[in-house]
Amino acid sequence: MNLDFTPEDEAFREEVRTFLKEKLPKRLSDKVRTGQHLTKADMEEWHAILNERGWLANHWPVEWGGTGWSVMQRFIFETETAIFHAPRIVPFGLSMLAPVLIKYGTEEQCRHYLPRILDGTDWWCQGYSEPGAGSDLASLKTQAVREGDHYIVNGQKTWTTLGQHADWIFCLVRTSSEGKRQEGISFLLIDMKSPGIEVRPIKLLDGDYEVNEVFFTDVKVPVTNLVGEENQGWTYAKYLLTYERTNIAGVGASMELLDRLKDVARTTMRGGKPLAEDPFYAARLAKLEIDLENMKTTNLRVLDAAGAGHAPVAESSMLKIRGTEIRQEINDLMRRAAGRYAQPFVAEALEEGFNGEPVGPEWANPVASQYFNNRKLSIFGGSNEVQREIITKAVLGL
Amino acid sequence: MDFSIGEDRQMLVDTLSRYLADKADWKAREAALESEAGFDKDMWAGMAELGILGALFGEEAGGFGGSPFDIGVVFGEVGRGLPTGPFLATLLAGKLLEAAGDSETLGNVIAGASIATFAHHPAVGADGSVAPQATASGAGDSWTLSGAKGVVDYLGSADIVVVTAETGNGLGAFLVETGAAGVSVRDYPLVDGGAAGELTLDNAPARLLTGDSAAIDAALASGVVATAWEAAAVMEVLRDQTLEYLRTRKQFGIPIGKFQALQHRMATVALEIEQARSAAINAAANFDKGAAQRDRFGAAAMYTVGKVGRLVAEEAIQMHGGIGMTWELPLSHYAKRLTMLGHVMGDEDEHLARFIELGAQETNRAA
């Protein structure tokens, strides 16, 4: 066994670093580092920079514009971009829809949609959850009824992340109520400009708007927008969720945040000494670091197996659970480090161009709201309870 | 042994509960959060008119209560109703006015004619540096204060601030008018609603309230009791709302509360909340049994509030799923408040260390 990266991997890491040093705009990395909000234009700007280099869709097959990177190279890329505070790649089109189209879509669909994802023409969002179908996704009710060359769609989706920016939505819709619930679901691509679609923002507990409700009233969708076969959408949905969960582990981002947390612990005084020397805080920090080190290797083992062609279904559930728990623990320790200064919250300071003085330590303003906002991590993408069900059944055979 | 709060306190609880249900409903809370002051000044004036604030102080000082259990039940209702406002600020400042025998100033605060707050912790700078302890110079009736204090509750709305400062002879408490020369205030909102501010004093005129640092410790200890009772009440609200959701939200064709994975977690939440309630009772019951015992049970209560508070807030949101993340649902506001209650009087680790330290002192004394 040898856990060292190969010289080729190390050379690749250097290549990524050089690229980031040269091409990542400081304006963007500053926003990410300080927890400021990224606008749609910010995210598109970073996508365009990556696309120019050919690295945006790094996990796609080469024939569609992918890089042909090994899973290890993808891991290195993810880690380095996080360390350099690059914006996160918006996953909906690139990481969720595209793999489904490539595996189950028609050649024509791929030719039409994939280049538009790459060049930023289309911003995609995800239409999975409904008010009555959260963890129990298969109970979804949004209905698509075939009429000639079209489906007529009626129903409601919710928790649609960044749907306010979207040109298109990929939706799970019910096309049959016969047989098992999972067998009557289809995967449909819907133009957000279609008449009969209404998007309503949902205000989250930290005051932010990032998720929406999407209502469909007699929305006409051409049958050519069906992906794969009618009533087979559940298979595609599960395939997509596996992708979502692998990305959700966020090891690179957690590594970067842990470094920042350690800096904070060194410079924050509590009772006359640095927090890093407080035995209780130091113990919390140490346990977190150990967990993350273990997680890194667990992640690499999963990636290694995936590289060998093994589909990471149950393993991706494990990554999702522990990856999100680690991230939430980091947020918790940041909040604790802020002490009484966890309370002040100047929302304007999260917007670009804020000129005011920070309140208390310069890093403290967003930490409580980030802690609250990231409670979502253990809820979305299939709640951690659902992930445990998957592990129980698929790995443990119980 | 008697665990009932007694008839008089029950009447107080009923009055406050009705008043808050009427004047501090969800719509009023939204408006208060949007306002610059961070709280509803009419609600505050009305509450003072009802005499509620008098329950926090003894008869000699112009109040009609002031025992730790009186304080506990008032803050319990504050937790249940979740109004924003200078409740803790009034208690902490008021306790020092009470200790100084300044019933005239305190009378104005109790009557709602004057808003008071308490500035104790040094400000922290952008680079993490902690401001030196504020200093007082002068004698008799003529003092000036210099220094910087951080996260002072509702400072922007306060008429007067009780400020702690080093007198050269230990820590003293001083009264400063916010409109006086040499006083500057920077106001800001808080993440769980309400407002606070940074206070900078540059030779600001001040009146000495007490040079006895034990009075400051006692005021802080009353703040601990208040926070423990408020937190226990918020936990109970979160428990009840979550139980209701577990009973009514259906997935996979049955209420999610039928899933054993959630049942056992909810049982743990309920158990821990009872422990937190007991910790709050302990803090109040030991308040008058000497500073060492008072502070040991206070530290135990704050440790428990921090530990259990995190569990309850996180589980309440998690068991609600996405809807628990929304602003629209009161639950998320209770969860935020509960989390921040683990910050206002110091966090779980700080109080665990304090508990150990006080225990060691006790052992040394016995030896």
Automatic annotation (TrEMBL), chain A:
Domain Acyl-CoA dehydrogenase/oxidase N-terminal: 6-120
Residue intervals of the Acyl-CoA oxidase/dehydrogenase middle domain: 125-219
Record-annotated Acyl-CoA dehydrogenase/oxidase C-terminal domain positions: 231-396
Required co-factors: FAD
Alphabetical keyword list: FAD, Flavoprotein, Oxidoreductase
Domain of life: Bacteria
InterPro entries the UniProt entry points to: Acyl-CoA_Oxase/DH_mid-dom (IPR006091), Acyl-CoA_Oxase/DH_mid-dom_sf (IPR046373), AcylCo_DH-like_C (IPR036250), AcylCo_DH/oxidase_C (IPR009075), AcylCoA_DH/ox_N (IPR013786), AcylCoA_DH/ox_N_sf (IPR037069), AcylCoA_DH/oxidase_NM_dom_sf (IPR009100), Mycobact_Acyl-CoA_DH (IPR052161)
Coiled coil residues, start to end: none
PANTHER family the UniProt entry points to: ACYL-COA DEHYDROGENASE (PTHR43292), ACYL-COA DEHYDROGENASE FADE29 (PTHR43292:SF3)
Protein family according to the UniProt entry: Belongs to the acyl-CoA dehydrogenase family.
Name of the featured protein: Acyl-CoA dehydrogenase family protein
Species in which this protein is naturally found: Parerythrobacter lacustris
Lineage summary: Bacteria, Pseudomonadati, Pseudomonadota, Alphaproteobacteria, Sphingomonadales
Automatic annotation (TrEMBL), chain B:
Domain Acyl-CoA dehydrogenase/oxidase C-terminal as annotated: residue spans: 218-341
A Pfam family hit: Acyl-CoA_dh_N
Swiss-Prot/TrEMBL cofactor(s): FAD
Statement: the UniProt record of this protein carries the keyword Protein transport: no
The entry's keywords: FAD, Flavoprotein, Oxidoreductase
Occurrences of domain Acyl-CoA dehydrogenase/oxidase N-terminal (ranges): 7-104
Domain of life (superkingdom): Bacteria
PANTHER family the UniProt entry points to: ACYL-COA DEHYDROGENASE, ACYL-COA DEHYDROGENASE FADE28
Family to which the UniProt record says this protein belongs: Belongs to the acyl-CoA dehydrogenase family.
Name of the molecule in the record: Acyl-CoA dehydrogenase family protein
